[in-house]
Amino acid sequence: MNKNFSVKRKIFPTDSGDISANYHKKNKVEIGPSKLALDEWHKAGLNLPNLSKMRQYRLNRI
After folding, report:
1. How far is Cα 33 from Cα 49, in angstroms, rounded to an integer?
2. How many domains does the chain have?
3. What's the rounded Cα separation, in Å, for the pair 21 and 51?
4. What is the pLDDT of residues 11-51, one digit of tens each?
5. Which of 25, 5, 30 has the alpha carbon at shortest distance from 15?
6. What does the alpha-carbon distance between residue 3 and residue 51 come to, in Å, rounded to a whole number?
7. For the CA atoms of the chain, what is the radius of gyration?
8. What is the pLDDT of residue 51?
């Protein structure tokens, strides 16, 4: 039977496919704004958000 797809992976071609080896790379959650956002806000003269108030607001909505 002929296969109509490439042998080489097109999505994450360097990924070994081993879930346990890549678990920590793919399952990270960044809490709060990124460094890029913080730098842009600083350049624009904006105040940083109050993350504890934001978290509490989100928890209250649940």
Report:
1. 9
2. 1
3. 32
4. 777 766 666 666 666 555 566 778 888 899 999 999 887 87
5. 25
6. 51
7. 20
8. 79
Q: Which residues contact 9 (CB under 8 A, 6 or more apart)?
A: 15
Buried b / exposed e over 6-42, threshold 16 CB at 10 Å, is: eeeeeeeeeeeeeeeeeeeeeeeeeeeeeeeeeeeee
The residue whose two tokens read 């978290």 is 55
| pLDDT given for residue 55 in this prediction | 85
Is residue 13, in this structure, part of any structural domain at all?
A: no
**3-state secondary structure labels for all residues of the chain:** CCCCCCCCCCCCCCCCCCHHHHHHHHCCCCCCCCHHHHHHHHHHCCCCCCHHHHHHHHHHHC
Closest CA relative to residue 57, chosen from 49, 38, 35, 42: 49
What is the model's pTM? 0.36
